[in-house]
Write a structure and sequence with these properties.
Structural class: alpha+beta
CATH architecture of the largest domain: Sandwich
Shape: globular
CATH topology of the largest domain: Jelly Rolls
Strand order of the largest sheet: 4-1-10-5-8
Distance between the termini: 47 Å
Number of helices: 10
Order of helices and strands: EEEEEEEEEEHHHHHHHHHH
Largest sheet: 5 strands, antiparallel
Strand content: 15-25%
Helix content: 40-55%
CATH class of the largest domain: Mainly Beta
Number of strands: 10
C-alpha cells in the first residue's frame, strides 16, 4: 500500500515514489499481471500509450511485462492498493475460465493470457475493498479466499475483454483496444444510469464518433444497440427493485421514467418473459 502524490514505474519494474511513502509493500516478482486500485484520491495510469483515470471506486489491470506510468492527482494525498499475481496462479484461473467458456460455447479456448489493461467490473472493486480491509491478524483462510476471488474475477474480466476486443471492426490491435475503451465507457455510463437519460447522440459525442459509426461499433461488439442496452439496464433496475422492495409496480414504473405501469410491463415482459407482478412472485 502506498500513500503518494506521484509515482513512476519503469520497464524493469522499479517503482519510484516522487512524493509519498510506502507501507507493507513486498513482492517477489512482477507477476503475471497486477491490479492497481485507488482507495482514496485519483490517479492517471498510462499503459501502452493509453491513459486510464482511476478513482476510489475503480481499478486498472496491467498485463505481464507492461511498463506503465502513474501520476497521482489528489492534493491531500492518495492511497493506492496494488496486487501482484504469480504466473502459476493466473494460469490456473485462466485455464478454468477458458475451459468453462469452451464447454459452454463449443469455441476453442485461447492458450495465451492477453496482455491488456482496462477498467474491471464493479464486483472486482468490491472484492478489492474487502481485501484491502483485511488486517495482518486476519485468518489466513479468509485472506486466501479473498485473494482467489480477486484473481478469478480479474481473469474473468480479462477473458471477457479478449472476446470483446476481437469483435471490434478495426484492423490494427491498438485501434481495436482504443475503440473498445470508448465503447466500454459508454456501456458503463448506460448501466450506471440504469438506462435513464441515454441518447444516441450524446453517447456518440462523448465517444468522439458520429452516430452512425458509434451505432455500428456498439452493435458489433455487444450484439445490441445502445438504446436496447439502455432498455435492458432499466429493466434490470426494475427487477432489482421488485425483488428488494415492496413498492407497487406503478411506483417502480414511475421511478424508472415509464409513462404508465402498462408501458413498463410491456418492456419488462420482453426482456424477462413475464409481467412484473408475476416475476416478483
Amino acid at each position: 500500500m502506498c500513500f503518494v502524490r506521484s509515482a513512476r514505474s519503469t520497464a524493469n519494474g522499479a517503482l519510484f515514489l516522487l512524493n509519498g511513502r510506502a507501507r507493507a509493500f513486498s513482492t517477489r516478482s512482477t507477476g503475471a499481471f497486477s491490479i492497481k486500485w485507488m482507495a482514496h484520491g485519483r490517479a492517471r495510469y498510462e499503459v501502452d500509450r493509453r491513459v486510464h483515470t482511476v478513482s476510489a471506486q475503480s481499478a486498472v489491470l496491467v498485463g505481464q511485462d507492461q511498463p506503465y506510468e502513474a501520476e497521482f492527482e489528489a492534493r491531500s494525498g492518495a492511497e493506492s492498493f496494488c496486487l501482484f499475481f504469480s504466473s502459476t496462479l493466473v494460469g490456473e484461473a485462466w485455464a478454468s475460465v477458458e475451459a468453462g467458456f469452451a464447454a459452454a460455447t463449443g469455441d476453442a479456448a485461447p492458450r495465451a493470457f492477453p496482455n491488456v489493461s482496462f477498467s474491471p467490473s464493479r464486483r472486482l472493486t468490491r472484492v478489492l475493498q474487502a481485501l484491502q480491509a483485511t488486517g495482518p491478524a486476519s485468518c489466513e483462510t479468509l485472506l486466501e479466499a479473498r485473494v482467489l476471488t480477486a484473481v478469478a474475477e480479474a481473469v474473468s474480466t480479462a477473458s471477457r475483454h479478449r472476446r470483446l476486443i476481437a469483435r471490434v471492426p478495426a484492423t490494427r490491435p491498438s485501434a481495436r483496444a482504443h475503440l473498445l475503451t470508448l465503447l466500454e465507457r459508454a456501456r458503463d455510463a448506460i448501466t450506471e444510469a440504469h438506462g435513464v437519460g441515454a441518447s444516441l447522440g450524446g453517447l456518440a459525442r462523448d465517444a468522439g464518433m458520429s452516430k452512425f459509426h458509434f451505432l455500428r461499433m456498439f452493435k458489433a461488439v455487444y450484439g445490441l444497440t445502445p438504446i436496447a442496452c439502455a432498455e435492458r439496464a432499466r429493466v434490470d433496475r426494475g427487477a432489482s427493485m421488485l425483488s428488494q422492495t415492496r413498492a407497487p409496480v406503478g411506483e417502480i414504473a414511475a421511478a424508472l421514467g415509464y409513462e404508465s405501469p402498462s408501458a413498463f410491463a410491456k418492456v419488462f415482459r420482453r426482456w424477462r418473459g413475464a409481467a412484473p407482478s408475476v416475476w416478483r412472485i
